[in-house]
Amino acid sequence: MLPLLEKVTRTPDQAGGSDVDAVRAVGVPDEIIIDALHVNLIFNIMNRLANAFDFSWDSQEHVRTSAKVIHRISYRLPPFLVR
């Protein structure tokens, strides 16, 4: 799964069906592949937004608070983003 996520993140134009087939070949179900790609998408969007707005963590407390929020929402995108 990790090689697929890295390829989708770093060189998305080179990712394709054969990459997904390689993950399937080791026994990863489609539902897990889809979930992992969704989480990867969220992380990539957040990372790019943080970079665009020059965001930085001020303290470990910010890290803990953010982790709690992410855990609470189970990594789901808000409905207005997925319509």
Percent of residues in helices comes to 55-70%
For the sheet with most strands, the description reads:
none
Instruction: Characterize the overall form.
Output: globular
The count of strands amounts to 0
- Give the SSE string: HHHH
N/C terminus separation = 27 Å
In round numbers, the mean pLDDT is 88
What would you call the quaternary organization?
A: single chain
Structural class: mainly alpha
Radius of gyration equals 15 Å
Total discrete domains: 1
- Strand percentage lies at under 5%
Q: Segments where pLDDT lies below 50 for 5+ residues?
A: none
By DSSP (H or I, 4+ residues per run), the number of helices equals 4
Task: Give the gist of this structure.
It is built from 4 helices and no strands. The protein has helices spanning 2-10, 17-25, 30-52, 60-72.
List the helices and strands and how they pair.
Layout: H1 2-10, H2 17-25, H3 30-52, H4 60-72
Folded structure, characterized:
With 83 residues, the protein is mainly α. It has one domain (2-81). It has 4 helices and no strands. The chain has helices at residues 2-10, 17-25, 30-52, 60-72. The longest helix has 23 residues, at 30-52. The mean pLDDT is 88.
Keywords:
83 residues, mainly alpha, 4 helices, globular
